[in-house]
């Protein structure tokens, strides 16, 4: 990295800086003329100088220049104007100069802003580029929040300074010198006074601001450390809660905030002291001008026009001077910030940029063996993790790596996956060092997976296909306005030194996964998901998701067939009456009272329970049908029963799992509410109290809660109210509520609800799991499984994949590695969160699945269960960083060595 910010800016914007400096130089001409014009207006047409006689005129706008060799040349003779006409003419010229100076400022500031934003974009891109090229060991010593804060916030002022780096001193200095020179021309002594004040401001103020710079640096460092500490709290929130250290963290944060407060308070004191002194000096000068200039005018040594011109010129002097001093402070400030960025990002050795060069071409298979020669790997403390290991792994060989924890097996696998760099020794393929090979080869032909997983915010599909996004293979098709915008963005990217690759291109290498394109990628994905036993999880995610009917048209069209097929399949088994279907003319006892009343699905977020309850039509219906009193009385009974049964139980008691309408925290609230509503009359309760009570009845299900509150009369009343609700439903409600229809897909309901079109009876313990299994078979038979799988793959995994369980993340991580169909697979204890039985099952699936149909990629697997080594061609046993034993399973299992101990 360039160590000096000024040199960095000049080297990247030299031509633009020269152009804008030229514009600044030209702008000084009308700027100077605007100072002299007020004197001409006052002395000429206003005071009458040159218009002494009756009808006297003067020449206006005569343009005469004396050129070398040629002599005097008259370009324009001018026009003769009387006193009033001259006043109007000079005033219009003054207005024109004001407009011209404003246009110059507008152009210069706009150009500076664009230049600064390009530089900000450039430096951010370069810093992130360097992060992508940091050596793996460096990431163990830095906090991600601090790096992100530096790139996002701390380089922000550098972009603004870029436009000002050379232009501001030229523009502001030129304006200040022009104004000062004009004052000196008018009167030497007034000019000297202005120059003296300017000198004091230029010397004293910057010296005082050194303290401000130091305080600003301290503020930046403490703020960055606070950001890193907050990031640690977020990442370690489980550890904090598990160890009751939240108050320790509060104390730490309070101390840091106190330090920041003291720094900022000191900063404010110095800042306003400097500002006070600067303003004082700026105001002293006009006093001297009025006093001394007025005295000279009274003495006749200075005319009124000159005094007005001097005061007018000085009015424009403090502004540029103050901004020039501010520029100098900003220069020093951003240089300090840049120095910090330089120290943080100037990491050696960086990964060579050529290793990460993009390549859209298909990579040939790695047919040479993987040769590990005298490999030594150490941790940050210098302890040897792998100690002089040499071994050769053939392209079609399966190798089990075993050993106790900290045996060196994990570090050995990390070296093969390029996650750690060797201290000595080499890992080579076909004589080429693994670290020197382009990532376009190692990232495609070598797959690595461990127990440490990370998923980017996005869908399951995005993360699953992430290992196939190496280069933009198909450019997006833009037309019209989009094409022009894309072209403009590409041109700006070039000017800012950014990559011109379009993120909207199709980056997925479908052929590498064994597909021809996006239409058949699921045929390649599904076997991989089956192998790692995650297909059922994704199916469950799909069943709980809503379906975009404009995308999944086939599935929506077959929903009626699915419903009938499910009913028929259940009739053929003992699950015949396990699902109670929705019937518009009947009350569904397995559904909540609210679901029975609504008989439809709300389109969220446009409509929810609270908004529906507040709707005038819904409230009027409640009053007309008398359901308000009925459901209020029912809610009181529910509250009394719940409080009586559960008020003595601890909050974590499993009985609370049955209370869908109330949590353990709600018990005291409803206990107090019941005491207040002793009269039990509907009219005595406030609207909020009625809502709290009626809400309980809405979530009530008789077969589940068994309070015996739903009479035949009340159920009939709810059904009649339902009919009345849908019969006269206003347009605004009809647009956000989809009525259940046995012949139609309900887009706002989940896929599970659409297929069931009813509710599962609560009496059956494992009914939900059994129905899911039946649905999976039906999706397969009707060729809809890929559509359903696609819905599940649209699930948003959240930040870092945290919406998935650890088991699901590790399975998905394995699936992502398998999908690349590499030549070498390195698995480093990738399933630590799974129980041993499932690990064994998945291991067998992967080894057998990869070695079928004539394909035999090399597999290097660090096993948690040594017994699984039986299915591998060769075994490498590590102990204390050294390769202790090597051979096949029959050989090592018969020897009385360490491997035999691991088997027992």
Automatic annotation (TrEMBL):
Compartment list: Cell membrane
Q: Which domain of life is it from?
A: Bacteria
Pfam families the UniProt entry points to: ABC_membrane (PF00664), ABC_tran (PF00005)
One annotated GO molecular function: ATP hydrolysis activity
Q: Name one GO cellular component term.
A: plasma membrane
Q: How does it sit in the membrane?
A: Multi-pass membrane protein
Q: Which residues form a coiled coil?
A: none
Per UniProt, which keywords does this protein have?
A: ATP-binding, Membrane, Nucleotide-binding, Transmembrane, Transmembrane helix
Supply the InterPro entries for this chain. ABC1_TM_dom, ABC1_TM_sf, ABC_transporter-like_ATP-bd, P-loop_NTPase, Type_1_exporter
Residue ranges constituting the ABC transmembrane type-1 domain according to the UniProt record: 75-326
Where does the ABC transporter domain lie? 370-902
Transmembrane ranges, per UniProt, are 15-33, 87-108, 179-205, 276-298
By its UniProt entry, which PANTHER family does this protein fall under? ATP-BINDING CASSETTE SUB-FAMILY B (PTHR24221), HAEMOLYSIN SECRETION ATP-BINDING PROTEIN (PTHR24221:SF646)
State the name under which the record lists this protein: ABC transport system ATP-binding protein
């Amino acid at each position: 990295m360039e160590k000096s910010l000024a040199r960095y800016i000049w080297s990247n914007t030299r031509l633009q800086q020269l152009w804008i400096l030229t514009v600044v130089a030209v702008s000084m001409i009308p700027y100077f003329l605007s100072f002299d014009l007020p004197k001409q207006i006052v002395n000429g047409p206003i005071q009458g100088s040159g218009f002494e006689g009756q009808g006297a005129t003067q020449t206006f706008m005569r343009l005469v220049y004396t050129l070398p060799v040629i002599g005097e040349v008259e370009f324009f003779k001018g026009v003769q104007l009387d006193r009033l006409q001259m006043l109007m003419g000079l005033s219009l010229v003054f207005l024109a100069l004001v407009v011209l100076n404003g246009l110059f400022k507008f152009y210069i500031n706009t150009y500076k802003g664009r230049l600064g934003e390009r530089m900000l974009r450039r430096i951010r891109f370069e810093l992130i580029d360097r992060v992508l090229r940091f050596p793996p060991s460096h990431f163990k010593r830095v906090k991600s929040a601090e790096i992100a804060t530096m790139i996002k916030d701390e380089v922000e002022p550098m972009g603004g300074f870029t436009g000002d780096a050379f232009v501001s001193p030229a523009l502001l200095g030129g304006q200040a010198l022009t104004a000062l020179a004009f004052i000196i021309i008018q009167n030497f002594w007034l000019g000297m006074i202005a120059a003296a004040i300017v000198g004091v401001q230029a010397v004293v103020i910057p010296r005082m601001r050194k303290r401000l710079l130091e305080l600003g640096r301290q503020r930046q460092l403490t703020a960055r450390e606070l950001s890193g500490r907050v990031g640690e709290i977020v990442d370690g929130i489980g550890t904090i809660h598990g160890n009751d250290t939240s108050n320790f963290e509060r104390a730490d944060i309070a101390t840091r905030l106190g330090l920041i407060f003291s720094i900022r308070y000191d900063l404010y004191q110095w800042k306003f002291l400097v500002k006070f002194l600067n303003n004082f000096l700026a105001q002293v000068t006009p006093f001297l001008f009025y006093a001394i200039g007025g005295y000279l005018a009274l003495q006749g040594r200075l005319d009124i026009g000159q005094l007005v011109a001097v005061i007018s010129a000085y009015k424009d002097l403090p502004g540029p001077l103050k901004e020039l001093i501010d520029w100098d402070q900003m220069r020093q400030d951003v240089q300090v910030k840049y120095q910090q960025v330089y120290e943080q990002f100037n990491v050696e050795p960086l990964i060579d940029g050529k290793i990460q060069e993009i390549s859209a071409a298909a990579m040939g298979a790695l047919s040479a063996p993987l040769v590990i020669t005298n490999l030594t790997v150490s941790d940050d403390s210098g302890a040897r993790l792998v100690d002089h290991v040499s071994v050769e792994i053939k392209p079609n060989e399966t190798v089990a790596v075993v050993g106790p924890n900290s045996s060196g097996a994990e570090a050995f696998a990390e070296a093969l996956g390029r996650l750690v760099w060797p201290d000595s020794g080499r890992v080579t393929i076909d004589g080429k060092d693994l670290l020197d090979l382009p990532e376009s080869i190692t990232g495609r032909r070598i797959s690595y997976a461990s127990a440490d997983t990370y998923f980017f915010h996005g869908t399951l599909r995005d993360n699953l296909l992430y290992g196939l996004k190496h280069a933009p293979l198909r450019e997006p098709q833009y037309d019209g306005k989009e094409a022009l915008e894309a072209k403009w963005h590409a041109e700006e990217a070039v000017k800012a030194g950014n990559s011109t690759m379009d993120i909207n291109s199709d980056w997925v290498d479908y052929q590498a996964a064994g597909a021809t394109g996006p239409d058949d990628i699921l045929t390649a994905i599904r076997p991989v998901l089956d192998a790692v036993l995650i297909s059922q999880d994704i199916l469950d995610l799909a069943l709980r998701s809503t379906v975009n009917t404009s995308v999944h048209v086939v599935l929506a069209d077959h929903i009626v067939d699915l419903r009938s097929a499910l009913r028929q399949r259940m009739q053929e088994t003992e699950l015949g009456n396990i699902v109670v279907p929705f019937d518009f003319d009947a009350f569904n006892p397995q559904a909540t009272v609210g679901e029975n009343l609504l008989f439809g699905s709300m389109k969220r977020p446009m409509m929810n329970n609270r908004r529906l309850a507040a709707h005038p039509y819904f409230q009027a219906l409640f009053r007309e049908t008398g359901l308000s009193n009925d459901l209020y009385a029912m809610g009181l009974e529910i509250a009394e029963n719940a409080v009586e049964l559960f008020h003595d139980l601890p909050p974590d008691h499993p009985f609370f799992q049955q209370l869908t309408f109330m949590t353990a925290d709600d018990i005291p609230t409803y206990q107090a509410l019941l005491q207040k509503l002793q009269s039990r009359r509907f009219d005595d309760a406030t609207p909020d109290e009625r809502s709290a009570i009626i809400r309980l009845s809405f979530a009530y299900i008789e077969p589940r809660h068994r309070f015996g509150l739903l009479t035949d009369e009340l159920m009939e009343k709810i059904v009649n109210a339902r009919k009345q609700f849908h019969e006269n439903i206003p347009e605004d409600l009809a647009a956000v509520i989809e009525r259940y229809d046995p012949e139609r897909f309900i887009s706002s309901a989940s896929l599970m609800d659409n297929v069931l079109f009813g509710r599962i009876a609560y009496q059956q313990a494992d009914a939900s799991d059994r129905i899911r299994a039946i649905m999976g078979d039906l999706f397969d038979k009707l060729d809809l499984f890929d559509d359903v799988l696609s819905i599940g793959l649209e699930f948003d995994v959240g930040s870092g994949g945290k919406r998935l369980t650890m088991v699901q993340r590790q399975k998905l991580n394995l699936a992502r590695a398998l999908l690349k169909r590499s030549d070498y697979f390195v698995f480093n204890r990738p399933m630590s969160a799974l129980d041993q039985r499932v690990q064994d099952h998945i291991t067998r699936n992967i080894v057998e699945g990869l070695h079928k149909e004539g394909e035999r990629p090399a597999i290097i697997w660090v096993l948690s269960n040594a017994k699984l080594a039986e299915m591998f061609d060769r075994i490498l046993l590590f102990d204390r960083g050294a390769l202790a034993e090597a051979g096949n399973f029959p050989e090592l299992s018969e020897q009385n060595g360490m491997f035999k101990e691991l088997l027992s």
